[in-house]
Amino acid sequence: MAESCIYLLENGTDLRYVQLLLEHNSTKTTEIYTLVARNSLIKIKNLLDL
């Protein structure tokens, strides 16, 4: 499930929708996934690698 949520965030899905999918009470908990998503984007050295 985590990989699916990271994929959704990386592709522009609103954090609140992901929060509902994960059944988190707080967006603070869900924001952890944005850090993972951001870190994977930073690792891309060239946009052509996508």
How would you describe the overall organization of this protein?
The chain has 50 residues and is mostly helical. 66% of the residues lie in helices and 0% in strands. It has three helices and no strands. It has helices spanning 2-10, 15-22, 27-42. Helix 1 packs across helix 3 and helix 2 (15-22) packs across helix 3 (27-42). The radius of gyration is 12 Å and the shape is elongated. The mean pLDDT is 81.
Please name the defining characteristics of this protein:
single chain; 50 residues; mainly alpha; 0% strand; elongated
Topology:
Layout: H1 2-10, H2 15-22, H3 27-42
| Poorly predicted tracts of residues | none
Mean pLDDT: 81
Helix-residue proportion: 55-70%
User: What form results from the Cα inertia axes?
Assistant: elongated
* Elements, N to C (H/E): HHH
Q: What is the number of beta strands?
A: 0
Number of helices: 3
Span between termini = 22 Å
Oligomer: single chain
Alpha carbon gyration radius: 12 Å
Summarize the structure.
The chain has 50 residues and is mainly α.
